[in-house]
Specification:
CATH superfamily: Response regulator
Structural class: alpha/beta
Largest sheet: 5 strands, parallel
Number of helices: 6
Order of helices and strands: HEHEHEHEHEH
Number of strands: 5
Shape: globular
Strand content: 15-25%
Helix content: 40-55%
Distance between the termini: 15 Å
Oligomer: single chain
Mean pLDDT: 85
Number of domains: 1
């Protein structure tokens, strides 16, 4: 059976259930980097991630510049991050610049990156897609929205 027909035979509910299982297994003891210039937003996103995925570690950065330093250091130490959730609008280096830097560095290119922003213009969504974002969600969002986006990213990356 061709992959397209196989995906269709699962149906949306089946595919999401399978994606959830893959996400849960893939991200057991995973290390997530949450990047946002607002500390309370980093904590909220970290809490929502911990609700969705068991036994994950969360590290935080206040901007893209410090996030890139953390990503490079973790890679050099042999303990790379598994996923990045980043705000778009931040000082020093914004989320789209961070995403572009990640996609340009061979050791980091594999990282799934989810962009979070308060804006949802067509232009921004296209810019994010062209830069290689794995997903995009708009603030404010809830646990279900985050869970669905994580499932979609896992289904796309690991199926």
């Amino acid at each position: 059976m061709c992959p397209t027909n196989l995906m269709a035979s699962f149906g949306r509910a089946g595919l999401l259930a399978e994606a959830e299982a893959v996400a849960s297994e893939r991200y057991v003891q995973a290390h997530f980097l949450v990047v946002d210039d607002i500390a309370s937003m980093r904590r909220v996103i970290g809490s929502l991630l911990k609700e969705q995925l068991r036994d994950i570690r969360i590290s935080e950065a206040a901007d893209g510049k410090s996030a890139l330093q953390l990503l490079r250091a973790a890679e050099a130490d042999g303990r790379p991050f598994d996923f990045v959730v980043t705000d778009w609008n931040m000082p020093h280096m914004d989320g789209i610049s961070l995403l572009r830097a990640i996609r340009e560095e061979v050791p980091l290119q594999r990282l799934p990156v989810l962009l979070v922003t308060a804006e949802a213009t067509r232009e921004m969504i296209l810019t994010a897609a062209k830069a290689g974002a794995d997903g995009y969600i708009v603030k404010p969002f809830n646990a279900d929205t985050l869970k669905l986006k994580l499932q979609q990213i896992m289904a796309k990356r690991y199926h």
